[in-house]
Design the sequence.
């Protein structure tokens, strides 16, 4: 069920690249949501923390600045990083879900690339807490 919500959030974030709409306006088109509260919280969270997330992507995407990533790959990373850093989703699930989104919607290299960045951020966070 939450996978479907993540797919909806990915579509919303993609639309937001072209239209300056609020989370509520973006979610209006997502009429089939089975977990609307989760989708709304995830979308609002990604948007609220987008500047920090984008800065992190820019620092971690060695040789691939934020502007060089495809819109879809960039937004999958935003979702995964938000869940890793600010959400209550277990890290392994957040990474796995982002990789699954990348396999379904991202570029050919996206699954490996997204897994690498999310795994590195997660491990750095665990080391910092140790």
Sequence:
């Amino acid at each position: 069920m939450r996978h479907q919500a993540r797919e909806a959030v990915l579509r919303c974030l993609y639309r937001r690249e072209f239209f300056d709409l609020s989370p509520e306006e973006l979610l209006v088109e997502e009429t089939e949501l089975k977990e609307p509260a989760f989708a709304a919280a995830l979308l609002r969270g990604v948007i609220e923390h987008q500047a920090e997330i984008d800065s992190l992507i820019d620092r971690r995407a060695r040789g691939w600045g934020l502007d060089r990533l495809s819109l879809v790959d960039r937004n999958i990373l935003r979702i995964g990083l938000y869940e890793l850093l600010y959400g209550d989703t277990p890290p392994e699930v957040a990474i796995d879900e982002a990789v699954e989104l990348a396999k379904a919607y991202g570029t050919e290299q996206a699954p490996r690339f997204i897994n690498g960045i999310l795994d590195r951020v997660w491990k750095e966070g665990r080391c910092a807490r140790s």
Q: What stands out?
A: The helical segments are 2-16, 23-27, 36-48, 50-60, 71-85, 91-105, 110-129.
